[in-house]
């Protein structure tokens, strides 16, 4: 059984246009009831299909001009859960992924400038026991970012 039907997909497409759109406006656009929209959105949030409805912050607009993608090599991969918990305590780390290849984890770091990035890497991340080394690639700008097409 598919997790999403045609109504769910249509509702998501409406929210992608404007995440602040009133449920009543979505209902009107799709010619369905407001109750149906409300129930469907709540169900998709509960199921984890929609990760919540929140603002997308444009970091550069608030003074965070630097970003990096940083691979982490761990002393022991079995320490990854403890290390992830420590990484969650660093607010400038906005994403963390398990990966294959040379690294165990891949993170995205957002910083105000190069000095701020250096402090995050050397004073915060390097101080976490179990991290053997880091390898960073500086982001020069996002060409595009989008959701998967439905």
Overview of this protein structure:
By secondary structure, the chain is an alpha+beta fold. The protein has two domains: 4-45, Winged helix-like DNA-binding domain superfamily/Winged helix DNA-binding domain (Arc Repressor Mutant, subunit A), CATH 1.10.10; 57-137, Alpha-Beta Plaits (2-Layer Sandwich), CATH 3.30.70. It has five helices and four strands; from the N terminus they run αααβαββαβ. The protein has helices at 6-17, 23-30, 34-46, 80-88, 114-125, and strands spanning 66-74, 93-98, 105-111, 131-138.
Write the layout of secondary structure elements.
Elements: H1 6-17, H2 23-30, H3 34-46, E1 66-74, H4 80-88, E2 93-98, E3 105-111, H5 114-125, E4 131-138
Antiparallel strand pairs: 1-3, 1-4, 2-3
Helix pairs in contact: 1-3, 2-3
Mean pLDDT: 93
The total count of helices amounts to 5
Give me the side-by-side strand order of the main sheet.
2-3-1-4
Q: Unreliable stretches, pLDDT < 50, 5 or more residues?
A: none
Helix content: 25-40%
CATH superfamily heading of the largest domain: Lrp/AsnC effector binding domain/regulation of amino acid metabolism (RAM) domain
Q: CATH class of the largest domain, please?
A: Alpha Beta
User: How many strand segments?
Assistant: 4
Order of helices and strands: HHHEHEEHE
Q: What's the number of structural domains?
A: 2
Rough shape? elongated
Which structural category do the helix and sheet elements fall into?
Answer: alpha+beta
**CATH fold call of the largest domain:** Alpha-Beta Plaits
CA-based gyration radius = 20 Å
- The rounded distance between the terminal residues' Cα atoms is 16 Å
Share of residues in strands: 15-25%
């Amino acid at each position: 059984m598919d997790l999403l039907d045609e109504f769910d997909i249509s509702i998501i497409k409406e929210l992608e246009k404007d995440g602040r759109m009133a449920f009543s406006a979505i209902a009107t656009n799709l010619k369905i009831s407001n109750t149906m929209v409300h129930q469907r959105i709540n169900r998709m949030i509960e199921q984890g299909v929609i990760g919540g409805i929140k603002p997308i912050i444009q970091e550069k607009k608030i003074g965070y001009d630097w970003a990096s993608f940083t691979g982490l090599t761990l002393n022991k991969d079995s320490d990854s859960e403890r290390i992830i918990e420590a990484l969650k305590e660093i607010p400038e780390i906005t994403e963390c992924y398990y990966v294959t290849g040379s690294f165990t984890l891949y993170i995205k770091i957002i910083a105000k400038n190069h000095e701020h990035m250096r402090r995050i890497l050397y004073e915060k991340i390097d101080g976490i026991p179990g991290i053997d080394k880091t390898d960073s690639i500086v982001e020069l700008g996002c060409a595009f970012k989008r959701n998967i097409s439905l």
